[in-house]
Amino acid sequence: MAGHSKWASIKHKKAATDAKRGKLFTKLARAITVAAREGGGDPAGNHTLAAAVEKAKGYSMPKDNIQRAIDRGTGDGDGGKIERVLYEGYGPAGTAVLVEALTDNRNRTGAEIRNAFDRNGGSLGEPGSVAWQFEKKGVVLVDGSRYGEDDLIVAIDAGADDVVLEADELKVTCGPASLRAVRFALEEAGVNVESAEPAMEPQNVVEVTDAAEARAVVRLIDLLDDHDDVDEVHANFDISDELLAAAEAAACASFGSSTQAPGEKLGGRHSCELFALGRCSTQSE
After folding, report:
1. Are 134 and 206 in contact (CB under 8 A)?
2. Strands 83-90 and 123-124
3. pLDDT tens across 131-172, in order?
4. Distance between CA atoms of residues 101 and 50, nearest Å
5. How far apart are CA 244 and CA 221, in angstroms?
6. What domains can be seen in the chain, in order of their start residue?
7. pTM, whole model, 2 decimals?
8. For 60-83, how does the pLDDT look when each residue is reduced to its tens digit (9 = 90+)?
9. Do β-strands 123-124 and 134-143 pair in parallel, antiparallel, or remain unpaired?
10. Tens of pLDDT, residues 113-128
């Protein structure tokens, strides 16, 4: 089935929650440091760094923090021996999952990622087993309650490929090279951009229609995304808004009886899907 995965919208809402907890800044800084180390500290000549910096700015990361992260990557600070690692696997219902990690200990991170898959109805695959199902794109999210598709025509003129409504978000996709131009065109037209970043978009999606499988899929993705070493998670699931809401409610109600071992790093302090979306009643943790 061709189509669009809802994970980009869900991930954006989760990131906003993470930003409030301060956790997101650590991940953003690490991505900036690695990008600067790999391609230099000038965003104008390093597209990966430019994207990482723009993402950090989008979540109101202080300029001083951004510069310190760049300095660590260019050798003006302690950048550490952090490396990029890509993990590929399958989740419940046959969903394809890509996990981009930034780690200083490949063996530790690999074991923890494998454990997350194994204990939540998935399996970690070999390199190349999943990546072929995704295509690198630029993704821009806009508040769908404030704007309509007609307001985003300028994005198409600037190089966007598609505009779709996902729940309460308008999602604009484009080629990675057009991302900055599309964002600039929208902002020049007075459209408030909630996020604009590169992503691995699925070429086809898996429609999950079973409530138990939907709950299992979102739980696995949330656990992976919450891992300290994970930079990005990409998945190809499609779950209806009604089923997603029911799955979230059931998952939150059953929180505390999960398969996550006490003290296990993956999942953090609270892993239910409602918390990930900022709608859990126990969010005061």
Report:
1. no
2. antiparallel
3. 999 999 999 999 999 999 899 999 999 999 999 888 788 999
4. 19
5. 13
6. 22-74 (1.10.10.200), 83-132+205-276 (3.30.70.980), 137-199 (3.30.70.980)
7. 0.74
8. 888 999 999 998 888 865 556 788
9. unpaired
10. 999 999 999 999 999 9
